[in-house]
Q: What sequence folds into this?
């Protein structure tokens, strides 16, 4: 790790000012991803602005009946928060499906939103990677790509976004509040992450010195919801496929549905096409299959990840089927 | 004898370990020490054309950056140095992740950052990284450690041809890595022409020999210290190049230097389980008696060595089959040298135990019954009788505890709602070695005993078991005996590998302790000041540190009393040879498979073993838990991915190289026949560590077949293969 200037920010204003004054600065919160990347020399910031002491750790109810979550809330604290557990169980499930207890105790909401891909080639500086060094190539396309994305990819990048939490936030229509020296703005979660296109190194729509201060959740829906993660071992592994879903069925018909996918795309993937097919359709296995097929129709696979299409299809259908059953029992 | 042997005594080093008092290789504080960091090659095959160290040298704290231009010539040691070449002696690159420079700085952080600033250019050649890309180059490697790679018994070809039933299949496994939690660390301290190494070594006597050859130093000038290991699993058995390079660098810079490998470096610096393919052909009678086994395996070799570590031992010796032909072929690839990795015989055994399940299914014979019908009551290869073997008891005990009799043999027949339940089994077996070992036991003037041996505590309980045996033979409380290991200043003893420690060391310990007891009793009975004066020595018994006259316990002396009067320590040595052999067992596994998302869980594991006499039931059970967990990893997830184009390891970290977590591992039941092997001088105990787990991958695959009707022959059995 190279030497860097370290600024411990006591308040948000100091933090964003420090970042504005030092181009290429990185905010340090839990450090569970940034420090790894610095050790691997993938991230080499000249300045690290430590935001871990900022007072952004509360959960407040909003006037519209939602929640505002401080960006420095630890993942474990957020998962255990009574308002989250009772009103947004899908978010608690997603958080607890991520990483290990030790990592969740360190990792923050803001850091989770901005965590970088676990594509192994991104971490290996001896191999080409457009995301790490634009213009060098992509080693994953012809290499080991079993864990890679099938939706939203481009010729230059097939890496997945690794977060579980973000998949739930995508399904929940979360809004991210950010601040810099110019002021604050609100970004719908769906617009926070970019698809790779020709610029996979640009992962979000944030300016380099913008700081995420909170995440706002709209009022919860009454529909049953679930986060389901499918992975290579029972715990402490990134998703092969994950599904965040909420399904409201009225008289056997899908009245409302929210569906988002993880492990299959470069960003938390809101399954808009599946939702369109499902809304108003009978809540049947056939509809769930048609919805999954519609969402996965544009999938582009590589040598190693073809199975993800079938696995995603089955996971979507299984999750919706369970929710429909749960809803009919209620 | 106080009944300590066999008891599940808690670790005598447990407190030191959980409080952090135990000093591992990288914990020793050496005044004036510098920190080294290796720069590893980024290409797998080619020449170094340019090496620019200026940016690294300019970094504050950096003392030196040494390359092939700076190092003195080192002689290439033979086994147990495995690479066949010493890096940083010339410009040739034999594999990705080979040392090309060694940075030395005041702090580890400075060294690591400077290593990142060393610029190396290569003339790269296209590497070959996988067996599939070079199978036509497979050859029969020459002798390795005096052992051939081809074995012939009877006429397997003809017997196969004539067999009523045949099974022919291919089985394969990828490269895997040991991943001990403690990384390799070596600290070199020179004093003139003498060298002390603080080392993470499974065999300090081995390491001393390798270092002696490389540096052309007498062994007497070299001391290796390794009191604790955070696991090894074979990765620390051979001596690897970082130890030699770091010692050479320390000599050049004239100060002690420590190098500790990073996790990623441990994927190219210290061996691995080689990628492996195997074609097996079994011939049998309709009754299931094996008549022929033709076993042709192909393992990854390198262009600099030809060690075959995953041998077909169980094909040759486990079952009573008259006609066997084993060929262990190799293919030279541009990869680091492979080596021994925990229970190396598992690699081949997986195929054999799977093929037997296929044969059982084909014949409609119960898999346990098939194994019983082919049980060997004398070594099938040598014809020698066994001194003791209770494998049939293991099948019976484990099958009963598991409930095997309730198994419906039809695949897919056992269900729990949507979940399909599968039951599978396999024989467990592994060889163990016996290595000449010596110990020294001192009973000091305070009446306490100290035992010294240059073997190691790899984490399995060596300190504890040695202490138990010594205390038992001496007739002392456990806490009156201190065991000191991991220092070549002590008498030469076995390495902690090849399941050899107990088989090699316990005999000498037991002998030394007996001799010490007799010596102290002789002192007492000869001493007019002792209450035991004049009692015949054979009528004196030792218990809890006291010496009693048998039949008259009022006449009592103690080690403390006898030694205090004697005024100087009693020192004895022990060295008793033992012979190598095999341990046996049986494993029964239940899997639960949900076909909807192809979710597989190992839900139950029941095992039974014949390791001869069990010296400590707690540590023995610990070995079973460890072995079974390794078996689950082998079967379901472990896989070092090597990029086909660059021959670089893609997943050199514990985030993407998956091993089982607790949630993947059910509780494991273990039973022990626990009858002493009269052929073993280690109180009837055999080497055992590597036996548990050897059958687990096949048992899991066999259970998957039973649950699903689908036969998998290529590990790991990941979800995509089960969809």
A:
């Amino acid at each position: 790790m190279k030497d860097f200037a370290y600024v411990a920010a006591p308040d948000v204003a100091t933090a964003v000012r420090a970042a504005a004054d030092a181009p290429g600065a990185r905010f340090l919160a839990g450090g569970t991803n940034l420090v790894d990347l610095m050790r691997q020399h993938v991230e080499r910031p000249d300045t690290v602005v430590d935001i871990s002491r900022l007072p952004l750790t509360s959960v407040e109810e909003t006037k519209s009946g939602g929640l505002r979550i401080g960006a420095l809330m630890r993942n474990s604290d957020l998962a255990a928060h009574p308002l989250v557990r009772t009103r947004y169980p899908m978010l608690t499930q997603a958080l607890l499906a991520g990483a290990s207890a030790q990592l969740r105790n360190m990792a923050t909401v803001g850091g989770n939103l901005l965590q970088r891909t676990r594509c192994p080639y991104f971490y290996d500086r001896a191999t080409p990677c457009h995301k790490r060094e634009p213009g060098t190539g992509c080693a994953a396309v012809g290499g080991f790509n079993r864990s890679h994305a099938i939706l939203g990819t481009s010729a230059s990048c097939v890496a997945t976004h690794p977060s579980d939490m973000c998949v739930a936030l995508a399904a929940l229509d979360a809004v991210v509040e950010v601040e810099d020296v110019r002021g604050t703005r609100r970004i719908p979660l769906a617009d926070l992450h970019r698809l790779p296109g020709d610029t996979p190194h640009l992962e979000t729509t944030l300016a380099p010195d913008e700081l995420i201060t909170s995440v706002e959740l709209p009022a919860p829906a009454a529909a049953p919801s679930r986060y389901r993660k499918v992975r290579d071992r029972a715990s402490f592994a990134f998703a092969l496929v994950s599904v965040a879903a909420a399904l409201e069925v009225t008289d056997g018909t899908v009245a409302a549905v929210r569906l988002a996918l993880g492990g299959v795309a470069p960003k938390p993937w809101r399954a808009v096409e599946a939702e369109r097919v499902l809304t108003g359709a009978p809540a049947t296995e056939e509809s769930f299959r048609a919805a999954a097929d519609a969402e996965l129709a544009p999938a582009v696979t590589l040598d190693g990840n073809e199975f993800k299409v079938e696995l995603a299809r089955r996971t979507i259908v299984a999750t919706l089927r369970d929710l429909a059953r749960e809803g009919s029992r209620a | 004898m106080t009944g300590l042997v066999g008891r599940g005594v808690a670790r005598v080093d447990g407190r030191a370990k959980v409080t952090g008092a135990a000093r591992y290789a990288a914990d020793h504080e050496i005044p004036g020490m510098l920190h080294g960091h290796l720069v590893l090659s980024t290409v797998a095959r080619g020449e170094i054309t340019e090496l620019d160290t200026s940016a690294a040298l300019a970094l504050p704290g950096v003392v030196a950056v040494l390359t092939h231009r700076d190092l003195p010539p080192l002689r290439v040691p033979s086994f147990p140095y495995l690479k066949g070449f010493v890096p940083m002696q010339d410009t040739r690159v034999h594999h990705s992740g080979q040392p090309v420079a060694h940075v030395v700085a005041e702090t580890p952080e400075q060294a690591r950052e400077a290593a990142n600033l060393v610029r190396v250019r290569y003339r790269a050649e296209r590497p070959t990284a996988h067996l599939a890309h070079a199978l036509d180059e497979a050859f029969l490697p020459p002798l390795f450690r005096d052992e051939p790679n081809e074995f012939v018994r009877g006429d397997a070809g003809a017997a196969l041809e004539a067999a009523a039933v045949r099974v022919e299949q291919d089985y394969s496994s990828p490269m895997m890595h040991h991943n001990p939690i403690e990384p390799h660390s070596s600290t070199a301290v020179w004093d003139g022409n003498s060298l002390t190494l603080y080392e993470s070594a499974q065999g300090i006597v081995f390491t001393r020999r390798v270092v002696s050859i490389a540096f052309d130093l007498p062994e007497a000038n070299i001391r290796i210290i390794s009191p604790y290991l955070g696991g090894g699993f074979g990765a620390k058995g051979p001596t690897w190049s970082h130890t030699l390079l770091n010692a050479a660098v320390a000599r050049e810079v004239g100060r002690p230097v420590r190098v500790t490998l990073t996790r990623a470096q441990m994927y190219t610096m210290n061996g691995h389980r080689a990628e492996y393919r195997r074609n097996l052909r079994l011939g049998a009678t309709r009754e299931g008696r094996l008549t022929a086994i033709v076993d042709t395996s192909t393992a990854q070799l390198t262009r600099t060595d030809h060690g075959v570590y995953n041998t077909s031992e169980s094909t040759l010796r486990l079952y009573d089959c008259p006609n066997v032909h084993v060929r262990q072929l190799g293919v030279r690839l541009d990869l680091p040298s492979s080596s021994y990795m925990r229970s190396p015989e598992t690699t081949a055994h997986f195929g054999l135990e799977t093929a037997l399940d296929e044969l059982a299914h084909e014949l409609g014979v119960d898999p346990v019954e098939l194994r019983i019908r082919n049980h060997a009551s004398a070594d099938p290869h040598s014809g020698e009788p066994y001194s003791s073997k209770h494998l049939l008891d293991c099948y019976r005990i484990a099958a009963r505890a598991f409930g095997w009799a309730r198994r419906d043999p039809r695949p897919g027949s056992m269900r729990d709602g949507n979940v399909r339940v599968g039951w599978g089994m396999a024989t467990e077996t592994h060889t163990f070695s016996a290595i000449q070992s010596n110990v020294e036991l001192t009973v000091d003037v305070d009446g306490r005993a100290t035992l010294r041996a240059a073997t190691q505590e790899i984490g399995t309980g060596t300190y504890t078991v040695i202490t138990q045996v010594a205390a038992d033979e001496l007739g002392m409380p456990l806490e009156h005996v201190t065991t000191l290991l991991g220092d070549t200043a002590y008498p030469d003893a076995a390495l902690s590998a090849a399941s050899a420690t107990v088989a090699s060391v316990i005999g000498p310990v037991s002998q030394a302790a007996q001799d010490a007891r007799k010596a102290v009793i002789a002192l007492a009975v000869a001493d007019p000041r002792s209450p035991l004066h004049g009692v015949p020595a054979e009528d004196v018994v030792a218990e809890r540190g006291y010496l009693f006259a048998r039949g008259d316990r009022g006449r009592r002396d103690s080690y403390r009393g006898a030694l205090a009067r004697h005024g100087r320590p009693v020192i004895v040595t022990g060295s008793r040879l033992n012979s190598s052999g095999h341990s046996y067992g049986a494993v029964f596994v239940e899997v639960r498979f949900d076909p909807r998302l192809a979710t597989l869980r190992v839900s139950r594991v029941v095992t039974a073993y014949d390791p001869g006499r069990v010296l400590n039931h707690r540590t023995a059970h610990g070995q079973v838990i460890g072995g079974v967990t390794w078996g689950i990893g082998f079967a379901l997830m472990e896989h070092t991915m090597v990029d086909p184009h660059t021959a670089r390891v893609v997943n050199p970290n514990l985030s993407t190289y998956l091993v089982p977590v607790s949630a993947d591992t059910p509780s494991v039941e273990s039973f022990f026949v626990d009858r002493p092997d009269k052929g073993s001088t280690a109180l009837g105990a055999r080497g055992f560590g590597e036996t548990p787990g050897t059958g687990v991958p096949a048992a899991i695959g066999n259970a998957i077949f039973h649950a699903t009707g689908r036969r998998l022959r290529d590990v790991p059995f990941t979800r995509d293969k089960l969809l």
Observations:
- Chain A touches chain B at residues 1-3, 41, 118, 120-121, 123-124, 126-127, 139, 142-144, 146-147, 230, 232-238, 240, 307, 310-311, 314-315, 318 (CB under 8 Å).
- The longest helix of chain A spans residues 307-329.
- Chain A is about 30% helix and 20% strand.
- The longest strand of chain A covers residues 239-250.
